[in-house]
Design goal:
Strand content: under 5%
Number of strands: 2
Helix content: 55-70%
Structural class: mainly alpha
Shape: globular
Number of domains: 1
Distance between the termini: 31 Å
């Protein structure tokens, strides 16, 4: 046991990968998923002799298990939207997952720590106030902006798990900073797991209907989301959509690459290369756009820190890799990028046209609800109400820009707070990067570039990656 603790990063890495793989393969019920997850966190806590560290690792692992008790709300009945794509009408769902359950445990830990004055020396930062303001704003929008406050309030309640996790991570930021390798190794295990699941899905041509797969059936987002004749399915891992998997990869891949450089372990380089292959298969244009410039910037930092020799390759290897990259570009990326330039919003596969129409619709909503917004989950139905034969009829989906979406649903002030939070995080990470040297600097750069990548994706997608960005930012915040 002591030998395992000495090499705790590798032990936690493989234990987490095997745990997730078994849960996926065994296809156990949601109740058993929760029970096994609690057991997993308990074993980690005992192994590491630190319950807070075990819970921190559990919170990060829970991000890839987003299934649970799901509630569905029909907002637009059959015939109200395109019958070809949505014959049963338009519904939204709210899911009570492991994330909410583990948050309840964290509340007890936080209260106990406050009573025992364990966190009495913790300083309140500007970022903390902004985060509190953001989640307070969700409730304001739900109560005073939404025409369906009972639904928006459910979303606001579920979002509180992110706030609770952030508070717990902030109170334990020194512990997180001391265990960076362990935590980043865990990220590598999760990325390896998602890559494995995605490869199996690609070979099978559909999701496998496992209990922890958010999307179980190809009919919803599989073939319908694929507009290339070369493929019949876009892998999505355990997430709801291939674009979400793409966003997850662009956030975690630079971190895993940085860890590989830090620890000089080929395992992490292999995971990084696997993630790039999966990223290509997702056909996610927004993820490609976000990752490529960040990857080149990251590589330039390797040269500056004189770590380039770790990635040196023979000329034949460089030629082979170049041919593979060029082939993938013309087979996968080039056709998708060409389609992005089409502004015909009547074709749901023409991303640019759909996004322009969505943004125009969103601007109308903002002008009508500038202060409180329309409430969480209400973008589609309110957009439909003002334009019944517009984009929300043919493509009923939240505006594909997370920043505009936040303004639409939570008002101008809510959107401004969201942007200020991200700006503050980038500033602090950049400041921390400037103070680091050597391999420690590379790790910070990996986190910085991963964060910048998901911020770029937010310009093209409605997916909210604020939780992982917030939680990992605490790694370089001193309590």
């Amino acid at each position: 046991m002591e030998k395992l603790r000495t090499n705790s990063t590798e032990t936690v890495f493989w234990a987490t990968f095997v745990f997730l793989l078994l849960v996926w393969l065994l296809n156990i019920s949601q109740y058993l998923v929760v029970a096994s997850f609690i057991l997993y966190v308990g074993i980690l806590s005992l192994f590491l002799k630190n319950i807070n560290l075990g819970l921190i690792l559990g919170c990060i692992t829970a991000f890839c298990i987003q299934t649970g008790k799901t509630f569905s709300f029909l907002l637009l009945g059959p015939g109200a939207v395109s019958p070809e794509r949505f014959p049963e009408g338009y519904s939204i769902t709210a899911t009570v997952s492991i994330n909410q359950i583990i948050s309840l445990i964290l509340v007890g830990i936080i209260i106990n720590g406050i009573i025992s004055k364990k966190y009495s020396n913790t300083k309140i930062l500007l970022l903390d106030l902004l985060v509190l303001g953001l989640f307070f704003g969700l409730w304001i929008s739900a109560l005073f902006g939404s025409n369906m406050p009972e639904i928006s309030a459910i979303y606001a309640t579920l979002a509180m798990s992110t706030l609770i996790k952030y508070i717990f991570f902030r109170l334990n930021s020194n512990l997180i900073s001391k265990n960076k390798k362990l935590i980043l190794g865990l990220v590598g295990a999760i990325l390896l797991f998602e890559g494995t699941v995605s490869l199996v899905q690609t070979m099978h041509g559909s999701p496998l209907a496992k209990s922890i797969e958010s999307q179980k059936y190809i009919e919803i987002f599989g073939q319908d989301a694929t507009d290339e004749t070369n493929f019949v399915f876009r892998p999505l891992g355990t997430f709801i959509h291939a674009n979400y998997l793409g966003a997850f990869i662009v956030f975690t891949a630079p971190i895993v690459l940085a860890l590989g450089i830090w620890k000089k372990r080929s395992t992490y380089f292999i995971i990084f290369l696997l993630s790039l292959i999966i990223l290509g298969l997702t056909l996610s244009r927004s993820a490609w756009v976000a990752l490529l410039p960040q990857f080149f910037l990251f590589y330039s930092q390797l040269i500056k820190t004189r770590l380039k020799t770790m990635l040196e390759m023979s000329m034949s290897t460089k030629i082979i890799i170049s041919l593979i990259v060029i082939s993938l570009f013309f087979v996968l990326i080039f056709p998708r990028l060409i389609k992005s330039l089409d502004i015909d919003s009547s074709d749901i596969n023409n991303g640019l046209g759909i996004r322009i129409a969505q943004i125009e619709n969103a601007i109308q909503l903002i002008s009508l609800h500038p202060l409180f917004g329309v409430g969480s989950g209400m973008n589609v139905i309110e957009g439909y109400n003002i334009e019944p034969d517009g984009v929300m009829w043919s493509f009923p989906s939240s505006v594909h820009n997370i920043y505009i979406l936040y303004i639409v649903e939570n008002g101008i002030f809510g959107g401004m707070i969201y942007i200020l939070i991200l700006t503050n995080i980038i500033y602090n990470l950049k400041k921390s990067t400037d103070l680091k040297v050597g391999r420690e600097k590379i790790i910070t750069k990996g986190l910085l570039f991963g964060t910048v990548s998901v911020i770029i994706i937010g310009l093209f997608q409605p997916y909210n990656f604020l939780e992982p960005v917030l939680l990992f930012s605490t790694m370089y915040i001193k309590s």
